[in-house]
Amino acid sequence: MKPKNLIVFDMDGVIMDVSASYRDVVRRTTKLFFRPARDSENLPEPLFELSDLAAVKQSGGLNNDWDLTFVVINLLFTLVDALKIHQGRDPWTRYGQTMVQCNVAGLAGFLASTDNPLKSLLTQWGKQENPFIAGLYEGDVGSGNIIKQIFQEIYLGPELFKSTYHMEPEIYRGEGYILREKLLINRSILKGLSQENLLAVATGRPRSEAEYPLKHFQLRQFFKAVVTLDDCVSEEKRIYAQEGRSVSLSKPDPFMLDAIAEGHRHAVSGFFYIGDMPDDMLAAARAQADFKSIGILISAPDKSSLEKNLLQAGADYIVEDFESLKDIIL
Q: Sorting pLDDT into bands at 50, 70 and 90, what band is 62?
């Protein structure tokens, strides 16, 4: 039987509840980043609300949470008194010797006394990059990207971190937050959809972090394709090698959707992409295939704000949960 539709799912905030994993890792990474500074014991717990973080995430161009963490640290560093920026070549030394001279008393006071502090700072400063912070976000884990390394240590936990990067963690040795993830969609819904449609995943996660929960929750058999950050990076490298152009193929670029749709254009009658971020809606609108974008609110801490942002980004449909899909996907 010919499948009716190609239905592509984003992963975070759509298939997986990442409020206690990726989103909370952003907070934990940020707090650990500022820990060596003076008065860091006065930083509030939690550092900021997830609804405030969502406002930064929804501002666009931040489809992976490493970039989100980088932006958040930049915003908060605008309130840090830094006596001297250490200029050493080793990033861990540069980070450590600079941070111990910093004072975060003003930052702590601002976070404790301001509603939506991240949104306030984003409005004031935009996505400016401090040269010191930017220097700690270069390269990859193990080659100078301290912000990404702290994030990955917390998210993966020591065993998965060591097996992924073949090195010991520097900062965090507790349980990985990846174990806190939960399903947002019932397996029976995916099973039902997969019987008459082709299902796929387009996610900004690295492949290993996308495959892990799909296998853990026994969902992998429902998806014909899983396209990840690794595929974007591989194609970016190919373009640079052959054409000398540096491009970003992460969402809102439609590369992942185009890659999935390739070969299925004449096999299905409809194309749908289900996401929870404005960049997801933009990617669907820019794809070569005629994707209809479905914005889902199931994991949003502020549903009305997200709905507004999704509609502004061009969402064709808005649904509260997966039960509502049957009214759209026939």
A: confident
